[in-house]
């Protein structure tokens, strides 16, 4: 440990952490700056300048000592320790002024105080070690008993002060006594840690044969008994104070791996040192391999060491908080002894390389395991949400199940310090596997149903920071709907503003939310949005949809008077508007700009308004983008297309999911009975559906394939339907599929809310059918709620006329024969050029709409094209399903939105923004501390060289 006296350690353990700390705090300050009072801004500036000055003084002293070739002295250790402790104390004292309670917690998911406690701990620990090394010369004898006694004086003294009232105990509040007690506690904690650490250091100074009065028993207690006892106490094995759903005080260390590694580590450290150089090298490498385990628990408990005095007084086993510190020092001592013994046989470079290689074993293993989980999860998300229909998939369901369990654990919220997370490792998992995002409960349940056959039960009730109550019925109503329209001759389109005045019918209600849905016709885009906030009109910000929805929800959950408004797509042809709050007798006004090719009537909450002038309207002919990739066909233009009738055929989707093997004969009987009654529909097709959808070649022996199919996984019907519809849309033919599902329960199938985004693939009819045991075809809608049976409809074999585009000879698409406009793609099966800004906002909107339709047919391109598509939406100011308009009250909300948006855009498209805040506060800066630990071990190994 004396090698820590080298001044170069200041750069690693002080300068770099402080730079990181300043960067993190500056980023947080940038978000909340507009909400701080002037005095708060000044206070942030002073603390920032003070920390920068301390770091510069510390670095300057270190560089001066390096230049002089001298080690750090006791003066530095004492000075740095006192200076940074005073800084921390003042920061905690002024914490309520640095971050006032008026600032919403969601804007600062990790309070700056946790950054301070975590990133200044390496400096404090280093200063403490320097002080101990300087005050404990190796050439002088030192008493373990005396230092241990001095360490115990602190908790015993505090116990006496608490138990024996007197003039020192002042029950009445007083600022003076509050500060005095605080200073006394800090001083006592420092003295306690100083003497405890010094005890272990003195023990380490003894040579291997001089353990004397302590012997192997004390070594076993420190390296084996205390770690195992600490794990057991953390899990509530002895205290029995946790309920079933709690996982631990400081983290979820209940895995048998932690106990196994603790036992193995203790045995290796207690094992007598071999005199054979080969076995000694094995010992050295083995101890190096488990050094990462020891150091992990050291950094986990490092921020809590100042609380160890309280823990010892309040809980009899509180001394276990010191176990990682004691274990670290013993582990480093053993590695140093091995290193010095092996230097006679191996070069220092070989030994250092061996240590680094051993130290990297556990981190590399964890990284490899997390990368495997990431690859499995991303493959599953791609298969479900961004599939490549031309690709075959086979995923590791068990690894996926384990990954989903971890994700659910990370979303749990426990009381007080109890947690289901792994400190630092959970943050590493969230960063490496989840891109700092998460999965919604709905997506987790869907993945479990698809790959495991059913959603997995929770290990215990999930507790959150706040309850998720069902919102009461809204009393807000639309009072007035008005509009203004202008025809833009440059882009040959209408620009209309729709204004909504909303009010609360319950004037006693403090705050309520207005929610409504606006149906939009084909060829109509949202081009702007505003919300009146007080006396000003706040223009909406076009942002990434998930980030905007998250920020809106956080503001509403504050239950305050802050004003957000959100406008986002709620389906292919409708947008949802939310305004909050609408309170008392207040009338709120909000407005939406619509760009549309033709006049139309908009109905909102029963009120109607005409957009555009129908008396001046002329029938719009086909309109295409400059490259003619996307075309808009008005109802009149569509009527000019030729009518054709395509031949239907049955496409049976057979359920071969888990636990359906006994139903195969029944399914076979149903299909044969149906085919005997409706053979005129043409050559049938068959798909075997479980987790995957295998479509059999035309004319294949479907009965044999059904009998031989392995029943496994869930009934992922959505995949089979989408795969069939996409194939039909990309390769238009004179025939079309009539989808018939063969299962015993359609409600157990994995289905979406609708298939409205694929409406271009079923122009003849929006229906699919479930084949019942009695041979009846039960109709269901692809457009709305597929699980519910709809009323009686015409027989699926009846001819239906559709429009062929652009002609009947070589049609590129078939369109429904109705009075509605349509948007068609010229190149649905090939790459579509990336969306870009073109002349005229309406034309740009048409290109964006075409790009969106193309991505529905090619979801495998979503991750690659999503961000450029969103950026084009931003530049054009035209909302898409990937973006949303959000009106915010202040600059802090806007800064928080920008930060969350960048996080979402950097992650995978199928991942979600957290439903609740999931950060583990003290995990920030973990990588820096790990690097510091590696350097610490390396330096101690080279001691004396």
From TrEMBL:
Transmembrane segments: 43-64, 76-94, 114-133, 145-168, 180-204, 216-237, 257-272, 284-304, 310-330, 350-371
VIT domain sequence ranges: 466-596
Keyword Phosphoprotein recorded: no
PROSITE patterns listed in its UniProt record: VIT
Keywords: Membrane, Transmembrane, Transmembrane helix
UniProt region (Disordered), positions on chain: 779-800
Domain of life: Bacteria
Protein name, UniProt field: VIT domain-containing protein
Origin organism lineage: Bacteria, Pseudomonadati, Bacteroidota, Cytophagia, Cytophagales
């Amino acid at each position: 440990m004396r090698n820590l006296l080298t001044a170069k350690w200041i750069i690693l353990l002080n300068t770099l952490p402080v730079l990181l700390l300043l960067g993190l705090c500056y980023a947080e300050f940038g978000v909340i700056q507009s909400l701080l009072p002037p005095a708060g801004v000044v206070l942030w500036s002073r603390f920032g300048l003070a920390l920068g000055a301390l770091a510069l003084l510390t670095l300057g002293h270190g560089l001066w000592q390096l230049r002089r070739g001298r080690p750090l002295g006791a003066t530095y250790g004492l000075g740095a320790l006192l200076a940074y402790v005073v800084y921390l104390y003042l920061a905690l004292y002024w914490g309520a002024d640095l971050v006032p309670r008026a600032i919403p917690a969601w804007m600062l998911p990790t309070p700056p105080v946790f950054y301070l406690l975590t990133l200044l701990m390496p400096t404090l620990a280093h200063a403490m070690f320097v002080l101990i090394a300087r005050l404990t010369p190796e050439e002088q004898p030192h008493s373990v008993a005396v230092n241990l006694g001095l360490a115990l004086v602190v908790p015993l003294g505090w116990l006496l002060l608490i138990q024996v009232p007197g003039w020192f105990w002042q029950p009445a509040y007083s600022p003076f006594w509050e500060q005095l007690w605080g200073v006394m506690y800090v001083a006592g904690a420092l003295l306690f840690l100083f003497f405890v650490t010094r005890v272990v250091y003195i023990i380490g100074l003894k040579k291997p044969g001089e353990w004397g009065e302590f012997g192997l028993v004390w070594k076993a207690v420190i390296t084996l008994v205390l770690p195992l006892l600490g794990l057991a106490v953390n899990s509530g094995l002895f205290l029995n104070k946790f309920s079933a759903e709690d996982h631990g005080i400081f983290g979820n260390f209940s895995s048998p791996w932690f106990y196994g590694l603790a036992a193995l580590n203790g045995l290796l450290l207690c094992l007598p040192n071999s005199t054979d150089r080969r076995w000694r090298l094995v010992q050295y490498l083995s101890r190096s391999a488990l050094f990462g385990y020891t150091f992990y628990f050291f950094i986990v408990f490092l921020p809590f060491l100042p609380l160890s005095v309280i823990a010892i007084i309040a809980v009899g086993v509180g001394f276990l908080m010191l176990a990682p510190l004691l274990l670290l020092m013993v582990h480093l001592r053993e590695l140093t002894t091995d290193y010095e013994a092996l230097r006679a046989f191996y070069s220092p470079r070989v030994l250092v390389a061996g240590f680094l290689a051993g130290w990297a074993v556990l981190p590399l293993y964890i990284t490899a395991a997390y990368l495997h989980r990431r690859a499995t999860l991303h493959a599953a998300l791609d298969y479900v949400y961004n599939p490549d229909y031309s690709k075959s998939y086979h995923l590791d369901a068990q690894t996926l199940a384990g990954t989903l369990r971890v994700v659910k654990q990370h979303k749990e919220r426990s009381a007080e310090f109890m947690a289901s997370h792994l400190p630092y490792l959970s943050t590493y998992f969230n960063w490496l596997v989840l891109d700092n995002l998460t999965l919604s409960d709905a997506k987790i349940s869907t993945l479990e149903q698809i790959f495991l056959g059913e959603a997995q039960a929770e290990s215990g009730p999930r507790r959150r920071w706040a309850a998720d109550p069902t919102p009461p019925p809204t009393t807000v109503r639309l009072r007035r709907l008005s509009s203004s329209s202008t025809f833009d001759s440059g882009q040959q389109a209408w620009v209309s503003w729709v204004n909504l005045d909303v009010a609360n019918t319950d004037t006693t209600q403090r705050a309520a939310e207005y929610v409504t849905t606006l149906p939009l016709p084909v060829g109509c885009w949202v081009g702007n949005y505003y919300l009146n906030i007080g006396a000003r009109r706040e223009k909406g910000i076009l942002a990434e949809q998930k980030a905007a929805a998250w920020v809106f929800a956080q503001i509403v959950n504050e239950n305050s008077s802050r004003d957000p408004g959100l406008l986002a797509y709620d389906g292919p042809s409708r947008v949802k508007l939310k305004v909050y709050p609408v309170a008392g007798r207040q009338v709120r006004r909000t407005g939406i700009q619509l760009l549309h090719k033709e006049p139309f009537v908009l109905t909102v909450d029963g009120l109607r308004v005409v957009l555009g002038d129908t008396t001046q309207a002329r029938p719009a002919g086909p309109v295409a983008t400059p490259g003619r990739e996307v075309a808009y066909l008005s109802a009149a233009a569509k009527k000019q297309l030729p009518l054709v009738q395509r031949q239907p055929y049955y496409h049976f989707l057979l359920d071969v999911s888990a636990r359906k093997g006994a139903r195969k004969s029944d399914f076979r009987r149903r299909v044969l009975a149906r085919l005997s009654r409706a053979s005129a529909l043409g050559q049938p097709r068959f798909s075997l559906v479980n987790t995957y959808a295998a479509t059999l070649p035309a004319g294949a022996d479907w009965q044999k394939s059904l009998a031989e199919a392995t029943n496994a996984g869930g009934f992922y019907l959505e995949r089979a339907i989408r795969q069939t519809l996409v194939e039909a849309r990309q390769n238009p033919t004179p025939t079309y599929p009539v989808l018939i599902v063969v299962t015993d329960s359609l409600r157990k199938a994995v289905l979406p809310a609708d298939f409205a985004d694929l409406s271009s693939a079923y122009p003849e009819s929006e229906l699919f059918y479930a084949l019942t045991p009695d041979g009846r075809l039960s109709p269901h809608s692809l457009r709305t709620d597929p699980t519910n049976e709809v009323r009686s409809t015409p027989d699926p074999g009846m001819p239906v006329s559709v429009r062929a585009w652009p002609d009947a000879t070589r049609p590129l698409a078939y369109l429904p024969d109705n009075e509605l406009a349509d948007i068609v793609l010229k190149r649905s099966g090939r790459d579509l050029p990336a969306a870009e800004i073109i002349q005229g906002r309406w034309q740009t909107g048409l290109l964006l709409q075409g790009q969106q339709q193309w991505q529905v047919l090619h979801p495998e391109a979503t991750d690659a094209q999503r961000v450029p598509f969103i950026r084009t939406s931003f530049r054009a100011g035209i909302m898409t399903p990937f973006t949303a308009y959000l009106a915010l009250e202040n600059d802090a909300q806007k800064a928080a939105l920008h930060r969350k948006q960048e996080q979402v855009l950097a992650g995978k498209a199928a991942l979600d923004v957290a439903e609740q805040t999931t950060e583990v506060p003290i995990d920030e800066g973990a990588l820096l501390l790990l690097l510091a630990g590696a350097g610490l071990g390396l330096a101690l190994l080279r001691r004396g060289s």
